[in-house]
Amino acid sequence: MSATATSTPPPAAPKVSSGKGGRTRFSFPVVLLIIAGALLALSAVRSITGAQDVTSAGQISAALAMAVPIGLAGLGGLWSERAGVVNIGLEGMMILGTFFGAWAGWQTDPWIGVLAGVVGGMLGGLLHAFATVTFGVDHIISGIAINILALGFTTYLAKLWFNTGEASERGGSPKQSPPADSITQVTVPGLSGWLHSVEQHHWFFVSDLAGILGGLVTHVSLLTLVAVVLFAATFFILWKTSFGLRLRSCGENPVAAESLGVNVYRYKYIAVIVSGGLAGLGGAFLSLVTSHIYNEGQTGGRGYIGLAAMIFGNWRPGGLAMGAGLFGFADALQLRNGGESVHALLLLLVVLLAVLAAWKLYRRSFVPGVISAVIAAAVLVWYLATDTVPTEFVSATPYIVTLLVLSLSAQRLRMPKADGMRYRKGQGK
């Protein structure tokens, strides 16, 4: 036996573990440290700028409401792409969810509306699966077609159903539905009030932590709790069951999966239909929880942002949840306080870019490091020279955050190997 084979390998790093392909996966304590570091940075920004709403319970509650539909759309994309089907049609499936959720919700019960929104999204998913899996249509073309069809279909039905009879009398119009009843919200008694009192002292870190926790236990919709359960269930089903292993094998190597007896078409159909149902649930959340009515253009590109959150999360539920939370936070911030709060976040962006530049230079990635440092300096000059952010930039904040996050995280991403590839039955024989 050679000396190389018998030599003792160097000890592994204690805080991180390497996944396949040399990708680094952080342990739970390291993740907690990263979260604590982010909270410290937000606390510092709040203290320096005086933007108290950055970590307030109201901001966190609004961010959670904005993050749920994005997260559900991204979760739908995760199911589909783990089975090898790219689902650009998430936006259209969300549109179907908003429409059918509101249509059933105002006439009957909001929970029936939720079910109708899920069914509407599943029909969109079935159409996408039929086109891509059975007929081998290009996944991107099929998804774009579904987005266009869903928008035109719901626009036509809204004029037909919401502009006449009882619907019109109760506030309906060609572009919106009558209002539906609210879904029950829950607040943890005692804890919510105590956290609010701590938040009002504006203590460094402590009040910020109280504000964040207060937003998570105050006026939380039951549908939000359903979304949390769905995230946990997705992780368990896809990574802890034989069904999930077979489904993921269809997205990694469908030919090998078929050779082992897996019905690839069946698993792809299941994944894409579930994907549509989750996107439809996200749409129903928008029309039944966020606004209580259907509005034309209500999704506002959240299906695409959900897809971006899924990519940011590296096709994993945990990373997806973090990405959805980030985008939801940016969306809520620009809606609640506009230019002043977004201006305060410029200082946080300077810190993050400076840390990134230092890390890239330490790793001898000189070009990205220098670029990050230059951008950090430019943003710092912008922050010091202004008191607020123009309205046009404020409204674009969620989309700018999407592009920025994806550009900074692109180097660590690893999509399913057969994602988006055409597969024809019998290739494994």
Automatic annotation (TrEMBL):
Region Disordered: start-end pairs: 1-21
Main location as per UniProt: membrane
Transmembrane segments: 26-45, 57-78, 85-106, 112-137, 144-162, 212-239, 269-294, 341-359, 366-385, 397-415
Keyword 4Fe-4S found: no
Annotated InterPro entries: ABC_transp_permease
Entry keyword Ligase: no
A GO CC term attached to the entry: plasma membrane
Keyword terms, alphabetized: Cell membrane, Membrane, Transmembrane, Transmembrane helix
Membrane topology: Multi-pass membrane protein
Pfam families hit by this protein: BPD_transp_2
Protein's cellular compartments: Cell membrane
An example molecular function term from Gene Ontology annotations: transmembrane transporter activity
Alphabetical list of PANTHER family matching this protein: GUANOSINE ABC TRANSPORTER PERMEASE PROTEIN NUPQ (PTHR43370:SF1), SUGAR ABC TRANSPORTER INTEGRAL MEMBRANE PROTEIN-RELATED (PTHR43370)
Protein name listed in UniProt: ABC transporter permease
Organism per entry: Streptomyces sp. NBC_01401
Lineage: Bacteria, Bacillati, Actinomycetota, Actinomycetes, Kitasatosporales
